[in-house]
Automatic annotation (TrEMBL):
Predominant location: membrane
Organism encoding this protein: Vombatus ursinus
Membrane listed as a keyword: yes
Gene designation per UniProt: TM4SF4
Membrane topology term: Multi-pass membrane protein
Name of the protein this chain belongs to: Transmembrane 4 L six family member 4
Localisation: Membrane
Keyword Transmembrane part of the UniProt annotation: yes
GO CC terms in record: membrane
Length: 199
């Protein structure tokens, strides 16, 4: 697979992941597939927009950049032998870096949310975080302490876990592009006819 084809493949993979991450974050606003009356009763981590911002919006830059990388004219840089390839690879490092930052943000939010557990109604007109340091992950009997919303614990756990997995894959893909582009830059020469599809 040629370098530009690889970049296009990575960019195309990031788009559905960004959509899924955004969707997971949106669903978190409807705990237990229901709507709560007071938004203050939602878990704080939902409002940090890890999936919408980190997995979604910030992932637009690397995905679009990598998809369009093949379309730019690589031999238009005054006939230079490197065909502007190093400049292109430098730009992909920067946008992939943005992707890594966004995915890392979503990853961190997901870890905190999973460890903390959801905010829920525990009785006596009280909404709070009833779990501590992820203790509910090993003891499912503790889930019954959350009375409302119905199924809030598996709902939050599932969606934040999905967000965690998606952000991990995004970090890996963007990291691959950074490493690949770095090695392309330090190469002394590039094969311009391969990049431009000549010969």
């Amino acid at each position: 697979m040629r370098p530009m084809d690889c970049a296009k493949c990575l960019g195309g993979t990031l788009i559905p992941l960004a959509v899924l991450g955004t969707l997971a974050n949106i669903l978190l606003f409807f705990p237990g597939a229901d709507r709560i009356d007071n938004n203050l009763n939602l878990s704080e981590e939902v409002w940090y927009f890890g999936g919408i911002l980190g997995c979604g919006i910030l992932m637009i830059f690397p995905s679009v950049s990598l998809l369009n990388l093949k379309k730019s004219g690589c031999c238009a840089f005054h006939g230079q032998e490197d065909c502007g390839k190093r400049l292109k690879m430098l730009s992909t490092i920067m946008v992939a870096g943005i992707g890594i930052v966004g995915a890392s943000y979503a990853f961190a939010i997901s870890v905190v949310a999973i460890n903390r557990g959801p905010k829920c109604f525990v009785g006596n007109n009280t909404w709070k975080y009833s779990f501590h340091n992820g203790n509910y992950l090993k003891d499912r009997d503790l889930w019954s302490s959350c009375l409302e919303p119905i199924n809030i614990v598996p709902w939050n756990l599932s969606l934040f876990s999905i967000q965690l997995i998606i952000s991990s894959i995004q970090m890996l893909l963007c990291g691959i592009q950074v490493v690949k582009s770095f090695f392309e830059i330090i190469c002394e020469k590039c094969r311009c006819h391969e990049i431009c599809g000549v010969g």
